[in-house]
Amino acid sequence: MHELPLPPSPGALEHPSIDLVNSVIRLPGDVVVDAIETPADATSWLIERGLAAEGSMLESYCQNRLLGMREDLREAFAAAVDGVRLGEHALDRINAAMKAAPQIPLLGMAPGGGFVRVPEHPVTQVVEQAMSVIAEDAATLLTGDEAPLLARCEAEPCIRFFLRTHARRQWCSTRCGDRVRAARAYARKKEAAAADARG
Fold first, then answer.
1. Best CA proximity match to 66, nearest among 119, 16, 111, 121
2. Is the dihedral of CA 146, 149, 153, 159 positive or negative?
3. Of 11, 2, 60, whose CA–CA distance to 172 is shortest?
4. Whole-angstrom Cα distance, residue 68 to residue 111?
């Protein structure tokens, strides 16, 4: 899986929906880094978040579903942050993901003995279960107490979302904040030099 060069944004560790939306980032110079660039990346992403079993091979179906969900959730988060209506198609797809998951885990045996409940289903159902968990997380986030905390990073060209840890927070990471402050300082220095040259 491609490692993202930024730490998780506030809220991403608690909310797989934020983590999924932030699985692609844009860096200065039009550099795009995508943690779900290949089918293997998609499978690894789900396994690392406990949404698929170790050793799963979910292939391109999984990647396509994750990428589609990522775009729908990005649209939903942007609508929430901007205070606009979410398009019906994205809303329908998010709701369909919540309804498509198998509801009853099967009975299985743990490696050391004893019974466990396991979501052992065909590959498509494992993926639907993961999509359902992510969509449910997004629905809970967008309608719950944390909804007003959802924000978009204000450091161009960053496209990540985060939960504000305090009211004045504008950036998803220290790195984005440092980049904005450095750009502002450079602009002030350049302006001061231009003023000195004129005067």
1. 16
2. positive
3. 11
4. 35
Domain ranges (residues) in the chain: 16-147
Helix (H) or strand (E) holding 24: strand 24-27
162 alpha carbon, distance to own chain's centre: 9
58-91 as b/e, with b when 16 or more CB fall inside 10 Å? beeebbebbbebbebbbbbbbbbeeeeebeeebe
Task: For 92-149, write each residue's pLDDT tens digit.
Answer: 999 999 888 766 667 778 888 888 877 655 556 778 888 999 999 999 999 999 999 9
Whose CA is closest to 141, among 47, 4, 19, 46? 19
Question: 121, exposed or middle or buried, with CB in 10 Å at 0-12, 13-18, 19+?
Answer: middle
Instruction: Output the pTM of the full model.
Output: 0.81
Compute how many other C-beta atoms are within 10 angstroms of the C-beta atom of residue 47.
17
| Closest listed residue to residue 72, CA positions, set 36, 20, 26, 149 | 20
